[in-house]
Amino acid sequence: MNARVRERDLRAPALTESDWTQVFHALLADAESPMVRAKAREAVSREIATVGLSWTGGDAKRSLKPGSLEDMLEVSSAVCNQRAAGVSGWVDKLDDRGWRLLLRQYAPIAVTEGSWIQYAFGPLRSHTASSAALLRAHSLYAGYGSCSANNGHRYLESLYGLGIALPPVTTWAFANDDQIATAVWREPAITLALSEFPETFLPEILGYNLFRAVYGLCPLIRAAEGFVRGQGAAIAYWQFHSSEAMRMQLVEAATVAIQAYLETGTAVSGLDEMNRSAIERIGTGLALAELLTGHWLDTVAGLVDRGGLSPRAQMLALVRRKASHAFGYHRHPRLRGHTIDDYLDPQHTDAAALLDELARSPYVRPGESGRSPLLTKLVQFGGPMFRIFTPAELDTIAVWIDSLSNADASAAQVRREAAGDMPRSVPTPAAGITPAHSSSARYTTASPVDRADGRRYNVRELYHRLLNVEAYPQALEAGGQFASEWLIRTGLGLGSDDRGLPFESYSAKALKTWLDAKHREQVDSYQADAGAITQSREEVIHQSVQLCPMVFIDGGWLQRFSSVVSCGSAIGSLLYHIYADELGNGSVTENHPNVYRELMRQMGVELPGFGTREFAFWRGFDDEAFDVPVFWLSISRFPRRFFPELLGLNLAMELSGVGGSYRQGRDLLRKYGYSSAFVDLHNTIDNVSTGHTAMALQAITLHLDGVASHSEGRVIDREWHRIWTGYRALKPPEGVRGWVRLARHRAAALLTRQP
């Protein structure tokens, strides 16, 4: 990123604190929207440019400027030790309530821990050593296939044990928690934005990951372990971060990822200058991590130092939060000659003056909440404010009253704590981002797969663009349309073929029975007679080569389920487990695409570099070889829009070949002296008892059970039909019927389109 780009970015309007809240929520709830992705890219570009300029002559020079990997490790460790020493004085200032409020401030960071690398091992580079190392680190944060071991889940479990129950992370209610300071959202918003562009900002991601691996848990939150333990809440989150073995694994994975990345760059370019540039960018990512973690610590430390976590500060926040709704209901009650509405006027709310007057009024007995009419009469059954306050808000009022002394009540001095308060007004959406509960926030394809010049992408071009989507952001729209049309053409179908809907109304038992029968059918189809093999060596090689565009992105249909937030759910953890297995669980040699690359080497096949245009347009591939992989890449980018279909596709993928064609393929490969490792691997790992097929079935069952818990039969069956459409979609749609179905859909869309 050159200086001109940096300066241009910095001239753009700076994001406000409420913008960070919007970015955080949008990336969790609506990252499929092009507007959201554009805003995220703008946000992270500005942050990176700001850090970069501070190194190269900006006004705010930073002391952090490592020049090598060793320097980065040393600087990260020094920052960690310095901050640990600096927070020791704040611990004594926190009581039980203060600790709870402090821990609440860390929730947005804890639930997105590891998010900065969540997409850095996607289909384009999953086979590389750097991606394998990043996957190893990510699996530790995400709890590899176990939602209970997910760090975000662990942290929320601890909060729950402390009596803090937060809304689901992807909801607007979570991002709009009025007890969390707005400045807190900056770091998690940036890490989520950074993760969306692993190709554009890979060096910065590597540096960010290294700092976080060394830094570990924020020292102030680390100091909260004693309080959490003393309250009897779960401490698994703290045990993870206090484990030296875990820290060493994270640091090792981070350093290996950087070393592998640098070695690959040198091997490709042969230029030391490229490595120097890469080191600088990695250092920028590390500096960004130091900046953002420090920003959170400064924000919270300021609250501690200035009494921002005090009972009075919390009461001030409550009054400001309620003022707009309470105004107009308090015209008659007077406090020293003024109506309460005078203090609540949204145009000039004076919460501090109101609290001082309340403390001196007959409604409050300082230090005695149990005898104060505000809580004994006004908010009780029959009182004028019955059910106006939540139980948590009533507790805030009680703690504030109990914290008062007679001296406080009689003092005329008005204490203003604006700098230390935590006022939270409902943020307005940032430009280009709308809360996901708004109908306008949903991603909709505005145009067909056409490019600006009116022509359509062929599958080879779309394959290349979707693999390199950051260079071709418009390809996402094309991919969404491709997936939609593929699914429409596939249709549900009630025919007699082997993919027909097995039963109209969903039944978990019927689905399990069908699966067992289908598996048995595949097992019985296997013919062990070598004489039945009629393909020649040349035919075997040709057929194997045609699978490369698909196999080289093995697991790609699940690529967006590596989100650390998704991994914290029961279904998400199952899908992540499958995805991580396909990628080799952090092992380059066990990576499924690499296993297949070895087969190509045995066959003497030399392929162009994967991900290049030459690969997509290599003459050794038939056009049809790209149909299914383009569908995978397309549908995978829209896990919210096509979630039921993805569940069905996943089942079809994991079940296909088990017991039958995989064993037939093994015999065929071995006949000509080739390794059968790839088919052998899938025949075992996809098994229907405990393997991927069983997990795929469990994910469907969990989803439909969830739908059934709040819907009636028709809704469940519609969802079931969508799942089965996804199951059918593994096989490319064929015949006139599919095209007729698509034509009807387009005609209906034209007739219903709003003018």
UniProtKB/TrEMBL annotation:
Record-given protein name: Heme oxygenase-like protein
Locate the region Disordered: 420-447
Q: Where is the composition biased (Polar residues)?
A: 436-447
Q: Name one Pfam family in it.
A: Haem_oxygenas_2
| Originating organism | Burkholderia pseudomultivorans
InterPro entries recorded for this chain? Haem_Oase-like_multi-hlx
